[in-house]
Amino acid sequence: MELSTRAERGYTVIAAEGRIDTVTSTRFEAYCVAAIDAGARRLVLDFAKLIYISSAGLSSVLAVAKHAAHSGGTFAISGLSGMVKEIFSISGFDGIVLVRSDVDEAIASV
Amino acid sequence: MGDTRYELVLPARVERLAELFDLVGVAGGELGLPDDRRGVIDLVVEEAFVNLCRHAYHGREDGMVGVLITGAAGELVVELRDSGPAFNPIAEAPRPDLTLGVEARKPGGLGVELMRRMTDELRYQRTDGRNVLAMIFRW
């Protein structure tokens, strides 16, 4: 899993590439929480290049969403595809966090 | 196409997960598993393996997991065995409410629920003092 952060029009966009599984989810969550704690209040998780997520990854996404909300921030996810999109849908996560098709749309709606 | 059969014994520790993914990948490749099923099969195998690592041996660190992967055209079976106390994860795990919002969601239960939903068949047996969980995928 590769993580990177970029600033885009006042938003912090964190891109996760590869796989968020039980082993890598800890690093993903810590990375996002650190960004929020460092002051990111408008956060977009860009999952366009994420090819795999397990329930551990979903739990991390949930923890990040809660942390963002408790810090007074906004939060959206963009670019779901393939099995990641399927798992978000089956678990009901696409109904409880803001999901948009790409980063532009996410920025426009948070 | 000949029948596929792979066996692996590894410690019940989550950091060994990648080895399991590798073996499932090799077997799936041999069997012509469609690319769009790969991720889902990895997910089910991960949920089962992690569950076992965390709960089968109640904190003992020397527990082992036996992995048997078999298949023929259009079918892949991944079997995990442990020698912990009898436990049927399919029957005994609570079913999470998938309609709850962010604040109300509790961790846990989701992995087993995904296993239930993403396999074509799940079978649990207690055999010779071992828990045997078979996850069957067809395409």
Keywords:
heterodimer; A: 110 residues; alpha/beta; Transcription Regulator spoIIAA; 6-stranded mixed sheet; 5 helices; 45% helix; globular; B: 139 residues; alpha+beta; Heat Shock Protein 90; 5-stranded antiparallel sheet; 4 helices; 5 strands; 35% helix; 29% strand
Overview of the molecule:
The complex is a heterodimer of chains A (110) and B (139). With 110 residues, chain A is of the alpha/beta class. Chain A has one domain (2-109): Transcription Regulator spoIIAA, CATH 3.30.750.24. Chain A contains 5 helices and 6 strands. In chain A, strands 1, 2, 3, 4, 5 and 6 form a 6-stranded mixed β-sheet that branches. In chain A, strand 2 (11-20), helix 1 (25-37) and strand 3 form a beta-alpha-beta unit. In chain A, helix 1 (25-37) runs parallel beside helix 2. Chain A is globular. The mean pLDDT of chain A is 96. Chain B is of the alpha+beta class. Chain B has one domain (4-138): Heat Shock Protein 90 (2-Layer Sandwich), CATH 3.30.565. Chain B is 35% helix and 29% strand. Chain B has helices at 17-31, 35-55, 89-92, 110-118, and strands at residues 4-11, 64-72, 75-82, 121-127, 130-138. Classes of the chains: A alpha/beta (110), B alpha+beta (139). The interface between A and B is medium-sized, with 26 and 27 residues.
